[in-house]
């Protein structure tokens, strides 16, 4: 318990902040087109629908058209809809969408609409705040099945050693989504690297740290054979739930689902420290945020602000903690006993304290797009880590130049 309190204090999450005055919704009829990246498999879309329905029950004149979109589809579709003057009225999505949305000038700042001191640190660019936090974290961590793993590995050497004993028959020691670089980036931090230089805009992908990261992931699959030769998100999820994987790397968004599937057998720990560097892997931290389209005004904006305040109220944030096992975005809820007394959330908070903020700049899109095919080529055995790192850098630099 004391350790979690220290973590929360270190993150600046002190209790006792006053609530902003509650906005009153309009009395006229308003229909809100609400797009969210929250998925059904984790129960998050259902949670969003529950709160939208509860708001409508309280204010029958305000209704919602709630639509789920996959992360990339939401980004692309919202940009296209904004250009066509047919954007939705409200977004609930990830922080890295803020970069392209602000560059395209299709969302509006929220500083004058909400008392942002009530919330954990949000997305700030150009001196303005672009999102209202719903949950904090959105970070990767090590999940493990306590029936198979009594003590989670502390270092990568421990991971490899225990992995060899756990991998047998149709069971693997560890699984993760091998197809997306989001799962690679924490290890890059553990090997001493980062995707940007100190200016936060210049890619730094062709480095010894990247080469070592790619080699490490390849070795887990080929040299040590403690993870499947191929595994996307769905495959890793299924193997862990079926007991065919002892450990899984996944994000806080999945905790509620795994608690239901594994019950008391679910354990949470930080990703193992990289033995060769003595550094901890640094997963990206961010959260889920409400973003308000620039076109919102008048009674639509009034209704949207009232709904966001309702959604992020103390009681509903505690409901989010209990329903989805996520760390909330409201400071007072983050300091609640509902968080401090939950060992799964304690583990999540500890991992979050070792993470690094997710870059929100538009150049991050170029990095993601450049890293993915090269990482996949290394894992497929068709390109060396050194050649892949160079190709990543060249592609990212070219993509950023094309943006300018």
Structural notes for this entry:
- The chain has 404 residues and is of the alpha/beta class.
- Helix content is 42%, strand content 16%.
- The protein is built from 16 helices and 14 strands.
- Strands 1, 2, 3, 4, 7, 12, 13 and 14 form an eight-stranded mixed sheet that branches.
- Helix 1 (2-10) packs parallel to helix 14 (343-353), helix 7 packs across helix 16 (385-403) and helix 15 packs antiparallel against helix 16 (385-403).
- The longest helix has 19 residues, at 385-403.
- The protein is globular and about 65 Å long.
- The termini are far apart.
- The model is unreliable at 1-20 (pLDDT under 50).
Layout: helices, strands, pairs:
Blueprint: H1 2-10, E1 30-36, H2 44-58, E2 62-68, H3 71-83, E3 90-94, H4 98-103, E4 107-108, E5 124-125, E6 128-129, E7 132-137, E8 140-145, H5 156-166, E9 172-175, H6 185-190, H7 208-221, H8 233-241, E10 245-251, H9 255-262, E11 266-269, E12 284-293, H10 298-311, H11 314-324, E13 327-328, H12 331-334, H13 337-340, H14 343-353, E14 356-357, H15 363-379, H16 385-403
Helix pairs in contact: 1-14, 7-16, 15-16
